[in-house]
TrEMBL record:
InterPro entries, A to Z: C57A10.07/YOR238W
Keywords: Membrane, Transmembrane, Transmembrane helix
Transmembrane annotation, as ranges: 15-35
Protein's name in the database: Uncharacterized protein C57A10.07 isoform X2
A cellular component annotation (GO) from this entry: cytoplasm
Protein origin, superkingdom: Eukaryota
Length: 300
């Protein structure tokens, strides 16, 4: 069969070499045109579910809003009885203050509460395996397990099934960017509204620096801040002012000291899966600059 097609091909080629070359060329060009048109159509789509063929392939397609709790530490205790004790968490020297562990639990509680009040919210705990001595356990997993041990603060039935993790972020900018990507991966679309839960003194950083860097509309971005412990506050505010300056000069955290800090927070060399899961914003992931990313963004 194949041989006979080959023979025939040979035969035609001898008879009309030019015609055959033209036919092959036009078939090739047609295929290219069809491919480029269909790709263009996909780029125009407001949501991206069809890209992957099947709506059902997104297990969380019905959620519209992202609630993100930014991780600050890894839970190291092997029991879940002392989630608000400092000994149970891996703390950097600057974090070692009585009451610090309780502030993490407050963030988790707050995230659960906000999600409980919004049926369309997906809750993400975000944070990677950032501490070598804590072992290969992520901040996100730590927060999830604490929520679990607290029975989701009375909201287990409502929230547990829509609380997931983003396990690679190494700093606050990545908490935001990676969670948005993870949201797309889970729901097939980008969030309508984003609420970030964290310390009140980080509000400025998230709302003005990180949000601006990804050009997410301010009217759809919310910050829920809780206070830090009283005795750590002064040092925290000082530290925060420094980090804010760094992000002002390097909004994507991809140069100099912010970049080095990221590397230091990845002791186990985890490969980062993104922008797999959010192909539309691949350019944003690759971008490094001091002015806002100028390319296409699905929400801007
Ligand atoms: C997003 O937030 C705005 C302002 O609070 C609200 O009016 C809107 O309904 C929210 N959208 C969704 C999908 O919840």
């Amino acid at each position: 069969m194949i041989k006979s097609i080959g023979n025939r091909f040979n035969h035609y080629y001898k008879l009309h070499p030019l015609v055959l070359i033209l036919v092959c060329l036009s078939i090739g060009i047609t295929v290219l045109i069809v491919l480029s048109i269909s790709e263009g159509q996909f780029k125009m789509m407001p949501t991206y579910r069809k890209l992957d063929g099947n709506v059902d392939s997104y297990p969380f397609a019905r959620f519209r809003n992202l609630v993100m709790v930014a991780g600050h530490s890894v839970y190291t205790s092997s029991s879940c009885e002392k989630v608000d004790k400092e000994d149970s968490w891996y703390l950097e020297p600057y974090q070692k203050h009585p009451g610090q562990a309780a502030t993490f639990v407050t963030h988790i509680h707050k995230g659960v509460e906000i999600a409980a009040n919004d049926d369309e919210a997906l809750l993400l705990f975000s944070g990677g395996e950032t501490r070598k001595d804590a072992g290969p356990r992520s901040e996100a997993q730590s927060y999830w397990i604490v929520a679990e041990s607290k029975q989701w603060f009375g909201e287990r039935d409502s929230v547990r099934s829509r609380a997931l993790t983003e396990e690679h972020a190494r700093d606050s900018f990545e908490n935001l960017l990676f969670s948005v990507c993870r949201f797309r991966e889970l729901t097939g679309a980008y969030p309508q509204n984003i609420t970030v839960v964290g310390y009140d003194f980080k509000e400025e950083r998230f709302v003005h620096l990180h949000r601006s860097a990804i050009r997410f509309p301010e009217s759809r971005f919310f910050y829920s801040g809780t206070s830090s412990t009283q005795n750590s506050r002064e040092a925290a505010l000082k530290g925060e002012a420094l980090v804010r300056t760094q992000f002002q000069e390097d909004p994507y955290g991809c140069m100099g000291s912010l970049w080095r800090k990221r590397l230091g927070r990845d002791p186990f060399h985890r490969s980062i899966p993104y922008p797999n899961g959010c192909p539309e914003i691949e350019g944003l992931f690759r971008y490094c600059g001091t002015v806002p990313y100028p390319g296409f963004l699905p929400w801007a």
